[in-house]
Amino acid sequence: MCGRYASSRSPSDLVAEFEIEAGNVRESVEELGENYNVAPTNQVMAVVERKDREQPDTTVRKLTTVKWGLVPSWAKDTSIGSRLINARMETVAEKPAFKKAFQSRRCILPADGYYEWYTAEEKLNGKPVKQPYFIHPPDGSVLAMAGLYEIWRDKSVADPEQDAAWLWTCTVLTTSATDDLGRIHDRMPLLVERERYDAWLDPLSSDPDDLLELLVPAAPGRLEAYAVSKAVSSVKNNGPHLLDPLPPDAEDPQDTPTTLF
């Protein structure tokens, strides 16, 4: 985890949730649209806070788009991004790929919820059956996943003033899963609670101990999980139907479901 999630919130909903001024929404956000099967290398929405160029002691909060799969500023090319979709909380402050971003380039990746696959003991055609689950806040609130972002200079574009000269990428921070979700998978995304949005996003704050204290696993009962169709396993499939709960005794068109709870 985290390797797939759903993101269908409108920009206006996120502007309200994260207290972003309407003028600070990047045009690419409006073009992104709903995505019920977000996968690595996709463009995703991110809430970031940047120093104001004219007033360095103040910051501006923005809603923008970034590519999922972090490319460190020192990388020779972008291929490393596919291996850096997640950053472990336990080592994020020391790992060279994440250390600088953790200090000053933190973000929130808003989601409806995320998918995880439970590996069952039973087998199909000699292979273990993997049942996808959708994990989300039962009250329908935004899942604010803690993330990091980086800005990589594409030197093949000569003019640094062009948007194409800079690639914005991100990674999702993860931690050990809580007991109720650990039965599905042993890792889960770290969440940023509403009262901690400001502190987490503040680029002027860089103390690693203080930052780590802001991140918490979901409290028991904060998230719920239910089985969904195996159709979500293919990135070719998309749409709100991927979030439909799979009845315990129903037959999944993709396969026969495994019941965990």
From TrEMBL:
Keywords: Covalent protein-DNA linkage, DNA damage, DNA-binding, Hydrolase, Lyase, Protease. Residues 238-261 are annotated as: Disordered. The keyword Hydrolase applies. Its EC number is 3.4.-.-. The keyword Chloroplast does not apply. Pfam families: SRAP (PF02586). It is an enzyme of class 3 (hydrolase). InterPro entries: SRAP, SRAP-like. Belongs to the SOS response-associated peptidase family. This is Abasic site processing protein.
